[in-house]
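All the exercises in this workshop are built on plain-text protein records. Sequence and backbone structure share a record, each on its own labelled line. The structure tokens are whole numbers drawn from a learned vocabulary of backbone shapes. The record below serves as our worked example for the rest of this section.
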Amino acid sequence: MKKAPKHLKTAAKRMWERLQADFCIDDSAGLCLLEAACSAYQLSEDARELVRREGLTVTDRFGQARPHPGCAIERDARGQMIAAFRALKLSPGEVD
């Protein structure tokens, strides 16, 4: 089993280890996709935490409430994670 990339935080490293072991991902392309999925997961969790701390909305220069940019970052990162799972031929229902 290959070690998780160093840039991943604890939760993403756990995901790497579980998926690599559960699905026997050991080829170069699979490991690249697994890294993409875990990095996207980490980014989505970081964005979620940012939004949790700062709130769902921000005020623009006109004083209008707008969605926090972190909401879009989280949404896009989750989409990237799911795309990587699909490329790995994993169903999102198989992963927690």
Observations:
- Residues 10-88 form one domain.
- The mean pLDDT is 94.
- DSSP finds three helices and two strands in the chain.
- The longest strand covers residues 57-59.
